[in-house]
Amino acid sequence: MPRIPAVPAAEAGFVGRLAYRYARRRFGAVPEPFAVSRHHRKVFWASAIAETAYEKACTVLPTRVRELAVYRTATTVGCSWCVDFGTMLHRLGGLDVERLQHIDEYATHPLFDEQERLAIAYADAMTAQPMTVTDAQIAELETAFGRAGLVELTTQIGLENMRARTYHALGIIDQGFDAACRVRASRG
């Protein structure tokens, strides 16, 4: 149970109930971070709008690269909700979920290609405290993904750090999204 309870639909207001209905239709359940953030309606809307905008804008990188970097960030921070939801998104995106079990071995495991290794190592460097990103690493990432791809990767890892740290601090834990596979692959 989160440290701050989710706002129930009955108390979410008319527009909030519509947003909950949309989330339930899209994800099979109202994501708990969504319902917890409803306590601050402006933050709720800012987050919903920003997430939608980033989802639409981030299309330069191959999905597998972006999602692996985000997943690695979630596991490093220790956000079980993010790991659960991210695993479901992997599955729905047609990505190989089984290899997530080997993410700690990414540097040498044959299931990961060079682009994925670079992105995961960058997620590690950005998430480390203090950050360990180097000029050489940035140059290598720019060569691999181009400037737009590097900006997208950096943004996605930064966003996941914010999400994972926020949800972890609020005590929001996994909701069973992946175990239930709440959304059919044809939905998006």
Description of the structure:
The chain has 188 residues and is an all-alpha fold. It has two domains: 9-57; 63-169, AhpD-like. It has helices spanning 13-27, 32-37, 41-57, 63-77, 80-92, 114-127, 135-169, 177-180. It is elongated, with a radius of gyration of 17 Å.
Features:
188 residues, mainly alpha, elongated
- The CATH class of the largest domain is identified as Mainly Alpha
Order of helices and strands: HHHHHHHH
- Give the overall average pLDDT: 93
The appropriate CATH architecture of the largest domain is Up-down Bundle
Q: So what's the overall shape?
A: elongated
The beta-strand count equals 0
Q: How far do the termini sit from each other?
A: 27 Å
CATH topology of the largest domain: AhpD-like
| Weakly predicted, low-confidence segments | 182-188
**Quaternary:** single chain
Full CATH superfamily name of the largest domain: AhpD-like
Number of individual domains: 2
DSSP helical segment count: 8
Query: Beta-strand percentage?
Result: under 5%
Cα Rg: 17 Å
Helix content: 55-70%
Structural class: mainly alpha
- Note the main sheet: none
